[in-house]
Structures are given as C-alpha cells and as structure tokens.
Amino acid sequence: MPYDEIILGQGLAGTTLAWSLLRLGRRILVVDRAVEGTSSRIAAGLMTPITGQRLVQCWRWDLFWKTATEFYESVEQQTGAHFFDRRRMVRLLSNEAEQGYFNLRRKSDFADLVAAPEPPLNPESFDAPLGGFEMLQGGRLQVATFLDVSRQQFTAHGEFIAADLVLGRDIEVTTNGVRLPSLGVEACRLIFCQGYAPDNPWFSHVRFNPAKGEILTLRIPGLAESRIVHRGVWLMPLGDNLFRAGATYEWKNLNSEPTDQGRDEICRRLQEFLRLPVDVVDHSAAVRPIVHHQYPAIGLHAQLPQLGIFNGLGSKGSLQAPWIADHFARCLVGGCELDPAVDLHHYDRLLIMGSGGSKFNFRG
Fold identical between 3-43+144-208+292-352 and 88-137+211-288? Predict the structure, then answer.
C-alpha cells in the first residue's frame, strides 16, 4: 500500500512534520541518512522570548511558545520519555545601548516576560556592571533525545527507513506521486526536510544563507547557577559542573569541522562576564539551514505538487517547528492556503516583483 507522504530527513523539521501528519491520520514514511553531527543534533534547543542586540520579542512568541510546549509535552506523554524543560533565563546587558532598549521596552513591549533576576547572580561568578533581567518564559529542548525517541517510535510502527538517497537518481516523480525504486516504496507526495541542501534539483531556486555554528561543552567547577545565562553567547547548565556554551556564526567555511577560532571566540566572550576558569571537554560544529529571507520556508513545487519542502528553521527551530509543521500538515491534508509568512512561493513572488529579499512588511 503506498504512503500518503514520504518525509526525506529526520531532523527537527522532518520529525515535527511526521508527528503532525500522523496526528491527522496520514500514512507516512520517514527516510533519513541516520548520521551524527547534523545541525539539529548539536543544536542547543533554546527557546528564548527576547533576543538580539535590540532586545526584541521573538517573532510570534505567544503563538509559537504555546504550540511548542503543548506539542513537546504531548510527545513526552505518548512516548514516556523526557526531553523538554521550561527554563528561566537571565540576560545580562552588554552596553549602554542595550540598557537603553531595555528601559524603553520593559514596561510596554514585554512587561509580562521579564523581572529582576531572583535570586541575583552570584557576583563572585558573574561580572554584570550594567545589570540584566530574568526571562520568565523560556525552555530547552534536548533535540538529540527528541529525535532519537521519535525515531524509535517511527521504527516500531514501520514508519522509518535508514537510507542515503541520491536525489537525482533515487527519486522518481510519477504522474500521481513519487517512487523510491531502491527502497521499493511509493507515496502521493515527498517532502524534503534535509536542512541545508543546495543541490536539490527540484528546489534549486531556494536561496540559502547558511551559517556554520560551533558549540562547546565545558567543565566549570564551582559554578552553581541553574539558569541559562545570555550575554553575547549563552551558557547552559547540564549538571555535575558541566555546561554548554555557544554559539558562533560563520558564513564562509560551511563544514562540520570544529575550529580553534570558534573555540577561542566562545571562550573570549565568556570571559567578558564569567569570572571562573573553564575547561573545554567537547567541541561540535554544524551548518544551520538558514533561508535567505531569514524565516522558514514551506510549500509545494509549482509544477510538481507531488514534491514539497520544509526548510530554513535556523537557530529558532525548536520554538518554531511545532506550529509550522502543524500548519503545513493541515494545508497538505485539507488544501488550505499557507500562511504568507512561511509560504515559499509568496517569497518567490516578492523577489520577482523586485523587493530584493531585503525588506519585508508581510511578517506578522
């Protein structure tokens, strides 16, 4: 019996889409290379309401946060696993400009999202001359665990195959669907959820602006802080004096090789606010699948609706993926129109009309 959808790629996008389609009663198959070191697997999984140097509320925070918490907690309940935590975070102010933005917005834009850090950070551990604030909402997804638990669930129900497909050779588009001859399976549709994939012959027009990111695992004896601390980089407690810290952004050397430059950059930024010495115990790198217009892109091929794409989650994927996956799944099943903010073809039309991809006023 053919599947309704084949999902190619079991990173964050493919996994959340698979769950969303299953909840709508679809027959799905997930195909993945099953390799380590992907951007989803090394991702920190942080969900932060206030971001950037200008201290702005994350795009559609209320909607994405509500959907994400409900989604991850429901998958935890269904699988009996634990991989999601609601975590408070402290943001330290780096300069007078950030201090000015915070004072301007604290009582209006995000009055319900921030408070004074309680308890205050230990001044023997942290240097914070300009102060900071605590974010009352936020969370962390243990992404690799979520992916592993989901894979086990899909495998147990015959919904997962490990395979490394060559796109131009191993995928056949038929009149009414898609066939994978090497695996002996076919479906009404195939959705590409591969992350950074510039060699996809059907979606070569998707403009990527990928960024390599590096993350460190550190041992910091004596640091007794349970919250995630942000100041240029983030510092996340793991327990037993272990912490993760990151991340860098590099747009030129797009590979998964850790570098001395990346390690030194993270350590240097940590030294700007952390008073304790650190010992690097692990170092990872991967390429984030950022789409040129900075927002995720989903949609079906304009001439071949048997093929679709869900890509471009970037560094906010853990927060955004559940709502976007559910929205895409409902549109695939019910034929509804995609939200213009994530519709790949809406973005394409703007480029054709000459917007240039640099300024968009349709993001709500």
Answer: no
pTM above 0.85, yes or no: yes
Measured between alpha carbons, how far is 250 from 254 in angstroms, rounded to an integer? 8
Do the beta carbons of residue 102 and residue 130 sit within 8 Å?
no
CATH H-level, domain 3-43+144-208+292-352: superfamily = FAD/NAD(P)-binding domain (3.50.50.60)
107 vs 203 pLDDT, higher one: 203
- pLDDT tens figures, 263-273: 999 999 999 99
Rounded distance between C-alpha atoms, residue 8 and residue 163, angstroms? 10
- Domain-by-domain residue ranges, the chain? 3-43+144-208+292-352, 88-137+211-288
What is the average pLDDT value for the chain, to the nearest integer? 90
Tokens standing for residue 316:
């906010």
Pairing of strands 84-86, 139-141: antiparallel
- H or E, element range at 23: helix 12-23
Residue 39's Cβ-count burial label (10 Å; 0-12, 13-18, 19+) is: buried
Q: What is the DSSP string of 145-204?
A: HHHHHHHHHHHHTT-EEE----HHHH-EE-SSSEEETTTTEEEEEEEE--SS-TT-SSST
Mean pLDDT of 108-123: 91
Categorize the per-residue pLDDT at 294 as very low, low, confident or very high, splitting at 50, 70 and 90: low
Report the CATH fold assignment for 88-137+211-288: D-Amino Acid Oxidase; Chain A, domain 2 (3.30.9)
The CA distance from 101 to 151, in Å, is: 43
**Rounded Cα gap, residues 311 and 298, in angstroms:** 6
Supply the DSSP string of 48-91, one letter for each residue. -SEETTTTEEPTTHHHHHHHHHHHHHHHHHHHT---EEE--EEE
Helices 317-334/12-23 angle, 10° precision:
40
* Tokens 């590409």 belong to residue: 192
pLDDT attached to residue 164: 93
pLDDT at site 174: 94
Estimate the share of the chain in helix, then strand, then coil, as percent rounded to the nearest 5.
30, 25, 45
Around 198, how many Cα atoms within 13 Å sit in the side-chain half-sphere? 10
Could you tell me the two tokens for 260? Answer: 């001395």
Q: Which residue has the tokens 């952004």?
A: 249
